[in-house]
Amino acid sequence: MPERYGIMLGSGSADFNASAMPLTVGTAYGPPSAPLYEHDIGGQCVLALARHGDRHTIPPHAINYRANIAALGSRGVTAIVALNTVGVISAVLEPGQIGLPDQLIDYTWGRAHTFFGGGKEFAHAEFTEPFAGPLRERLLRAAVKAGVTCFDGGVYAVTQGPRLETAAEIDRLERDGADYVGMTAMPEAALAAELGIDYACLALVVNRAAGRSDRPIHDDVEIHSAAAIALAMRVVERLFSE
Ligand code: HPA
Fold this sequence. Notes:
Strand content: 15-25%
Helix content: 25-40%
Number of strands: 11
Bound molecules: hypoxanthine
Structural class: alpha/beta
């Protein structure tokens, strides 16, 4: 069966939706962060959703992740490409580049993180590999075809936010084995797993993590965001055109 793609847009990438058709969708968990937008890319319909809202008003801890994933699932999405801006901890990547993490560690708390509960029979979703291998492979191949360098692998530490980390917190994440730090891949990835939707994260490196640069983090973000977003867009447009 052909894949029906969804794309979860993050900070700085919501403009992707500017000229698309909005589709208002309700869910049992309330409204998603924004309408879904239908894109016709290479003859396929791709559904896009801006997780922080169309005007970037919903911070990471306040996102209704369940509504967002349920909304995409209810429209038949079988594979989600998530764009997540991150800071880089290890030296494997530079700001302005992109990577495809293959593992995560969840440091978030207090977020509605499961569809189970409320008297329904529950299951324990497998999460050994939090990012779908075949979808990652397709993204890596799309990157090659698009002429974009995309780092293969790495561990994404998901922090609570919305504040950035302290230098000591980043040291701890590094000792834990993390390469990237961001605030939004969880519970998104786990909720997709509960619904049986493939999920891969394209990490857009927009800064060096706290304590890893002489420059203020926001300066890094301002300088490097556009380059990382442009690379990610080239990869997803290539993927969706196949
Ligand atoms: N930390 C957490 N989340 C982020 C960062 C960071 O340095 N950069 C972009 N999202």
